[in-house]
Specification:
Layout: H1 2-29, H2 34-62, E1 71-74, H3 75-93, E2 96-101, E3 109-112, H4 114-130, E4 134-144, E5 147-154, E6 187-192
Helix pairs in contact: 1-2, 3-4
Length: about 190
């Protein structure tokens, strides 16, 4: 598993690193295209940073050293912000996807690590966008008893049946574009207490 981890991490890190190095060289040769190249460098640096953070999170979870910052949060507000960001991503990618979120009446107050929760929901929606060419992605929030339930449903290809036995394992991926540190399906739900 350690060798598999090293192979996947080095492969995933190579792509943005090569892009950063390549654009850095090109800036010197073509200063007139500086703004365009700086944007590409920034985009790939963010990708590299996100990957590094994901790998560190996996390590912290395994060593049980991941610390959560529990605070009061408004779930409806948090999801609304994520949806707005993801709608912008859909526009940028020029995809024919309708991202639907009909927030419930009233606020949903929870105790949670807002940044971690935002990361999970954002990853689910982002994966739904990645694997849905055309169609609808629907995000719902409901309260039941003392729980808040977040559901993400999409009309995309879903999870390959080959992956089901390993779905909650690290590096379970059938995609050429991901590490398998997160997955989506046609329906994924999580419950917050």
């Amino acid at each position: 598993m350690q060798n598999e981890f090293i192979n996947i991490a080095s492969h995933e890190m190579k792509t943005p690193t090569q892009a950063i190095l390549g654009y850095s060289t090109l800036i010197q040769r073509h200063p007139e295209k500086q703004n365009e190249m700086i944007q590409a460098i920034s985009r790939n640096a963010v990708r590299l940073q996100r990957l590094t953070k994901d790998i560190l999170d996996v390590t912290r979870i395994e060593t049980q050293s991941l610390k959560l910052n529990i605070e009061k949060a408004n779930l409806k507000e948090l999801i609304s912000e994520i949806i707005e960001d993801q709608r912008n991503e859909i526009k940028t990618a020029n995809k024919d996807i309708n991202l639907v979120f009909e927030p419930p009446d009233g606020d949903i107050r929870i105790d949670a690590d807002k940044s971690r929760l935002a990361q999970v929901v954002s990853n689910l929606v982002s994966n739904a966008i990645k694997f849905t060419k055309v169609g609808i992605i629907r995000v719902d929030v409901e309260t039941k008893d003392s729980n808040a339930i977040i559901s993400v449903r999409d009309t995309g290809q879903g999870i390959d049946p080959e992956i089901y036995p390993r779905i909650f394992s690290k590096f379970a991926a059938k995609s050429d574009t991901g590490t398998g540190l997160g997955q989506t399906s046609n329906k994924v739900s999580m419950t917050l207490r």
